[in-house]
Amino acid sequence: MKEGIVIYMLCAAALFSAPVQRFEIDIESGAALSGYNNIRIPNNTGTLISFSEELETEPAWFVRGRLTYNFNRAHSLSLLIAPLTLHASGLLDREVIFRGESFAPNVLLNGVYRFNSYRLSYKYQWSVRENIHIGLGVTAKIRDAAISVADADKISEKTNVGFVPLIRFSLVWQFVEPLALVLDGDALAAPQGRAEDIALAVAVDMSRNFSTKVGYRVLEGGSDVDEVYSFTWVNYVFAGVLVRF
Questions:
Q1: Taking every pair of C-alpha atoms in the chain, what is the biggest distance, in angstroms?
Q2: What's the whole-model pTM score?
C-alpha cells in the first residue's frame, strides 16, 4: 500500500515538474468510409432510405485539426475543427418522400450528407504510472449539419445547427519508447440520440516537439425525434502529426 502511494506521488511530481509545452497542433488526414447511413425526414411521414446500402457512397478524403493550450501538465483547453461531407448516388425502385418533396422511382438520386463539427474542450490529465496517462473532461460541440436529396429537376435539403454537450476522455500508454497507444474521444448518449467520435492510434515520438501517428476513428450517432430520423456510422483511416511548442 505504501509503495503504491509513493509511486503515485512520484508520477504526480514528475507530471507537474516537467517543462510545459504550452501549445499543440494536431492534424489528421485520410479516408472516411461510410458504414450505415439511414435517414428519414420527417420521421413520421418521410421515406426511410439508406445512403450506404440503397445508394452508393464514395470514400471521402478529410482533414481535421485540433489546437490545444496547456495551462500546465494537467489542465488543457482545445479547439477542434472537423469537417465531413459524404456524397451518395443511385437508383431506388420506389418513390422517396424527403421533407415533403416527392422523388419518382428509378431516377438517379444524388444525396449529400454534411456533418461539420466544431468543439471546445477542457481536459484534466493525470498519471497512474510513469508511462500511462488518463484524461477526462467536457466538450461543447457545435454541429453544422445538412442532408439533401436531389434528382435532375429538384433538390430538397434539411439543415441543422445545434449545440451538443459531450464527455471528453483519453488514454495514453507508452508501452515502449518511442511508441505509444492512444485512445481519444468524445461521446454521450441520451433518449433522443447519441454521439461518439473515438480514435485508436499508434503514435511515434520523433522528438520532444514532433510526433506522427496512424490509426482508426469511428464517428457514430444520430437522433430519433419528430423532425428527423438519422443514424450514421463513418469509419476513418488516418495518419497525422502532432507539433508541440
A1: 75
A2: 0.89
Retrieve residue 56's grid coordinates.
452508393
Q: Per-residue pLDDT tens for 43-86?
A: 999 999 999 999 999 999 999 999 999 999 999 999 999 999 99
Which residue in this structure is represented by grid cell 490509426?
Answer: 215
- CATH for 2-244 is 2.40.128.90
Q: Which among 53, 63, 58, 39 has a CA at the least distance from the CA of 147?
A: 39
53/33 Cα distance (integer angstroms) = 13
Per DSSP bridges, beta strands 85-91 and 108-129 are: antiparallel
At which residue does the C-alpha cell 456510422 appear? 233
Closest CA to 111 of 195, 41, 197: 41
Domain-by-domain residue ranges, the chain?
Answer: 2-244
150 and 171 in contact (C-beta within 8 Å)? Answer: no
What 3-state DSSP class applies to 244? strand
Residue 25: half-sphere exposure toward Cβ, Cα within 13 Å: 4
Q: Residue 45: phi, psi to the nearest 5? A: -125, -10
pLDDT for position 5 = 43
The rounded distance, in Å, linking the Cα atoms of 244 and 26 is 9
